[in-house]
Amino acid sequence: MALYEARDFLFCGMCGTLLSFHSLHHASCPLCGFKRPAAEIEGRETTYTITAEDIRRELKIEPFVVIETAPTHTEEVQRAVVNESCPQCHHPQLEYYTKQLRSADEGQTVFYECPECRHKFSVNT
């Protein structure tokens, strides 16, 4: 028996709508009025599996983003430099690096740090 046949008893035989169980004697279709005798349904079992992804999609929740921590070793990471002034101390150059924090079809986030006053800020591009 195919999987869809195993669950056919839950749906209307005329229009395919999910049957409502408002009576002890039959299940009825709320759309067209089709009725299925309770004897056809009694004793049958069906299961339903839901995943965390299904719940997130239903509630329109974005997946959690794990932000990596800075390396714990003492090596100094060399960053690129851009000729833009710091918004806080007006130093003429800023160090920067980029990271993909959002989905792949959106731009990267650029993280800036002033080498003079250590002011940090980011820009989503």
Automatic annotation (TrEMBL):
Q: Which GO terms describe its molecular function?
A: DNA-directed RNA polymerase activity; nucleic acid binding; zinc ion binding
Keywords, in A-Z order? DNA-directed RNA polymerase, Metal-binding, Nucleus, Transcription, Zinc, Zinc-finger
Against Pfam families, the record matches this protein to:
Zn_ribbon_TFIIS (PF01096)
Q: What is its main location?
A: nucleus
| Compartments (UniProt record) | Nucleus, Nucleolus
Single GO cellular component term: RNA polymerase I complex
The family annotation for this protein states: Belongs to the archaeal rpoM/eukaryotic RPA12/RPB9/RPC11 RNA polymerase family.
Name of the protein described by the UniProt record: DNA-directed RNA polymerase subunit
Q: What is the native source organism of this protein?
A: Ananas comosus (Pineapple)
Q: What is the lineage of its organism?
A: Eukaryota, Viridiplantae, Streptophyta, Embryophyta, Tracheophyta
